[in-house]
Amino acid sequence: MTPPRTGRHDREHIVGVALDLLDRFGLPDLTMRRLATELDVQASALYWHFDSKQDLLAAVSDRILARIPEPSAGLDLLAAARAVRDALLTHRDGAEVVMSSAALRPGPSRAQDVLRSALPGDVDDADLAATAVLQFVLGHTTLVQQRMHGESHGAASTAGALDDRATDAAVFEAGISLISLGADRARSRH
Amino acid sequence: MTPPRTGRHDREHIVGVALDLLDRFGLPDLTMRRLATELDVQASALYWHFDSKQDLLAAVSDRILARIPEPSAGLDLLAAARAVRDALLTHRDGAEVVMSSAALRPGPSRAQDVLRSALPGDVDDADLAATAVLQFVLGHTTLVQQRMHGESHGAASTAGALDDRATDAAVFEAGISLISLGADRARSRH
DNA sequence: ACCTGAACACCGTTCAAGT
DNA sequence: ACCTGAACACCGTTCAAGT
């Protein structure tokens, strides 16, 4: 059943190693040369498997998003938004990776699908709302992860770190709650 | 009144040229070396004026945000959000520049202030809401501008370009409207 | 105070050539 | 089919030295 494995590496495997490198060193240090070294291969070898670094990052983005669970019935917007956020938070700089590839993947992604499923099906503005929620989650999580990066190489006080985490969560809940409330109200006006 | 101009360039001037380069070639091509060439100077000369490229980009970010008008009374949330978005759209890749420096500028920025001023002063969740709105605007505009970049070097159909612009605007209005509705409702519950 | 020149340690990508 | 080796055209940053 598994496809023939003549070469040493296939796309799937390379994406896995890239994800590992991402978690250990962050996006700025995820270079084609480092990835190649990790695979015991020349950098140029990667260009047989991927057209470009963009192409590689798009595959990494897809893998990050694949962690989002299937849209299940009865999921409310807050739960759906949390599922997307948590998938992004699972890997270092996950939001930035997804964002950088989001423009090239125009079709409704897995993320968009879960969010859409948590909104009323009869309102035609629901697609717009789902997109807006996705953009909020991406913006929010990107900024959160960027601050993590800043802290790690020792810029500010470690004292406020727990505070920041709590505030981040509160901002997220506030954002989604307001949109939920707004959607309910828009709906109750028929 | 003007401070002494002994050297050929000061920070203000360099930021202006950087912004011009940004508009003409985009963020990936805004390199220290290109900027130096544009200023008829060696790249190393820039490091007398700025500690690092990050430092330079932070100054560029501040200049982009400086275009946001003062928070005036009676401004509603939609108008305030538009003011922030329009400032970001004024320069190519503006949202990405601001986002990349946002983590290092933790204090309430000019953008946060306008948004905050458009929300009720008596609700203590208003700060959370203002931050959430800012994160939505940044996420939204970053994705919009990334798609512009993708189109420009000729990926997809030019036919749907106008369509995209209209959809982008609709998503933005939908997002802000829903949050406004939600905020009203949260407020009317005392 | 402000800038040059040279160097260091890197990048992404291409392409002929190997197996 | 898959990879090597070498090259091309770049990066950000540091630092002694100049003026």
TrEMBL record, chains A, B:
UniProt keywords (A-Z) are:
DNA-binding, Transcription, Transcription regulation
| Gene3D superfamilies linked | Homeodomain-like (1.10.10.60), Tetracycline Repressor, domain 2 (1.10.357.10)
GO molecular-function term, one example from the UniProt record: transcription cis-regulatory region binding
Report the DNA-binding ranges.
31-50
Q: Name one Pfam family in it.
A: TetR_C_1
Organism superkingdom: Bacteria
Biological-process GO terms, alphabetical:
negative regulation of DNA-templated transcription
Record-annotated HTH tetR-type domain positions: 8-68
The family database entries (PANTHER family) matched by this protein are listed as: HTH-TYPE TRANSCRIPTIONAL REGULATOR RUTR, TRANSCRIPTIONAL REGULATORY PROTEIN
Protein name (database record): Tetracycline repressor protein class E
